[in-house]
Amino acid sequence: MYHVVIGVDDNEERAMACARAVADLPGDASEKRVTVIHSFTDNPSGASASQLASVRDVTDFLEERGIEIEVTESSGDPADQLLEVAQEEDADLIVVAGRKRSPTGKALFGSVTQSVILNAERPVMVAGEARE
C-alpha cells in the first residue's frame, strides 16, 4: 500500500491539483491510501476540516476513483503539522500545491510549500496548476 499525505488549504483549485496528481500516480487505486490534512491557523467558528469545500472536493474526487481516504485536522503551523502527520503515518510521499508567482517570485514557493520541501524526510511532490 502506497501512503500519500496531502496538505490542503482552503483553495479548491490547489487542492484539486494535488488530488489529480495523486490519482495520476502509477499503480491501481486499491494500492493507494491517502491522508488529507488541513491545519487551522485560526478557527473561531470551530469548523472541522471535512466542512471545507477544498477537503470535500479532494475526498469526493479520490473516493470516486476507489482510493482509500482519511481526513485529519490540526491547528498550528501548517508545514509543521503536515510534516508531523507524514512522520507519524510513515507516509511514502507528501503532496503539496504550488502557486503561480510573479516573475520576481517565481524562484520562491509559498512559505508552507518551501518549508515542507526543505524539512521533509521523505519525498515531496509539488502539484502544478489545476487543469480544467
TrEMBL record:
Residues 3-126 form the UspA domain. InterPro entries: Rossmann-like_a/b/a_fold, Universal_stress_UspA, UspA. Belongs to the universal stress protein A family. PANTHER family: STRESS RESPONSE PROTEIN NHAX, UNIVERSAL STRESS PROTEIN UP12. This is Universal stress protein. It comes from Haloplanus rubicundus.
